[in-house]
Amino acid sequence: MKKAEYQSLADAAGLHHYFETSWELYWKHGRGPTPRQSPEDLIEAYYTARDLSSTFRHKIEDISETLKVRTSMRPQGIKSPSRILEKMKSHPPGQRRVPNDILGSKLTCKSIQSMYEVAEKLPRYIEVVHFSDRVIRPHQSGYRDLQFLVVVEPESRHIGEVKIVHEQLDALDQYEHRIYEITREITAEFRSKELSPVQQRILEELARASDNLYAWLWKDILSREEHL
């Protein structure tokens, strides 16, 4: 992506103040293809992640303490096997790869400014192999974060995910995730069947509700922080 195009996306998101920081991170860590998990075998990757979960947790906790932000890990430490398989099956057969977020963590910040300050400093403390500004280019639902893929430990080169999130978006996500779970259940249950008009309407309304919530909150965050 060219710099002018990237800047246009930042301006459209109301983030012109943070464009240079984001562009520098993108230029260093985000231009290439998303790296493959190590090991690439699903079972080996899962057990590697399980063995490294404590190492990853301690490393992220140390970083959060240094940067003075809150952190949280997955409730069970690692992504469940069923969720890993579900995520892989969501891609076409020829494009299914072991996900890079079997190990995942969040660093939660009080402001947009703090998010980008933490993002700028994070590569000093852990090896970053990929960066994606999903604040400038948000998820389809409207959820926004800064995603880093990092090397958990040098020997295995296993990859974990670190997301930097705004505390208000994180709070909303706790509720919106229930909408996502309902959508996922309906989609999974009727994956090989045609949805009824009622089921289709439910999915459409849930998607609309999610979009509206995130759009409203993002507008509110920008309004509150524009003079900070």
UniProtKB/TrEMBL annotation:
SUPFAM superfamilies: Nucleotidyltransferase. This is RelA/SpoT domain-containing protein. One of its GO terms (biological process) is guanosine tetraphosphate metabolic process. Coiled coil: none annotated. Residues 76-187 form the RelA/SpoT domain. It comes from the Bacteria.
